[in-house]
């Protein structure tokens, strides 16, 4: 739950970006971007207070007995192979999310002839669905088990991604909402699962997975843009539609809880 709350703030901010671009930047010019820095300054102040609170919590919990993780019984090779599977799942998730977040507006404009503002609003709806999926994934993983959330999120979104390239504008909007909610519910579950896999290394695991996720997003944007230039934006979505099928590798993940 805590991991989802942390991530949903960033996702909600990303969702507001296209909406603000459609409402403020498009009609009034790029000079208004500077006003958004006020939100960043506010975030710095909040983060300073959170860091002080966290330091006090760390001191209060020093010396307490921690619950032994089921991952303790896994061999080193099993842990490494499990991390590799999680990386594959992160790859499939973020490559596909990049295809939407980076090129969805161009796809809508090119295929359906919508205006820039209309395309930005469609992107906002998708990113808002991503934020909603993020907050849903955490508590759901706590309740039914993180492995099952990962399984349902990555592989379960495949029917929607496979249908998207052939949908009308109306159904494209609906399908992307389902895709955003379902696919976004995975990351918090994957991250907490990895932290349980390597207990006591929260910082290292978080850095590894956040870094890999953002790296895949950046590489994905470049690769997909190159493919779109060589072929077409429609072909990019037809290819990316198969990425969630990599979720079948979730079956190889060991169970780390009793759910």
TrEMBL record:
GO terms under cellular component: plasma membrane
Q: Which UniProt keywords apply?
A: Membrane, Transmembrane, Transmembrane helix
Q: Give one GO term, molecular function aspect.
A: transmembrane transporter activity
Transmembrane regions: 12-29, 35-54, 79-97, 117-136, 148-167, 173-194, 206-229, 235-256
Instruction: Tell me which residues make up the Major facilitator superfamily (MFS) profile domain.
Output: 1-259
InterPro entries found in the cross-reference section: MFS (IPR011701), MFS_dom (IPR020846), MFS_trans_sf (IPR036259)
Top-rank lineage group of the source organism: Bacteria
Q: What is this protein called?
A: Putative membrane efflux protein
Q: Which organism is it from?
A: Yersinia pseudotuberculosis serotype O:3 (strain YPIII)
Q: What is the lineage of its organism?
A: Bacteria, Pseudomonadati, Pseudomonadota, Gammaproteobacteria, Enterobacterales
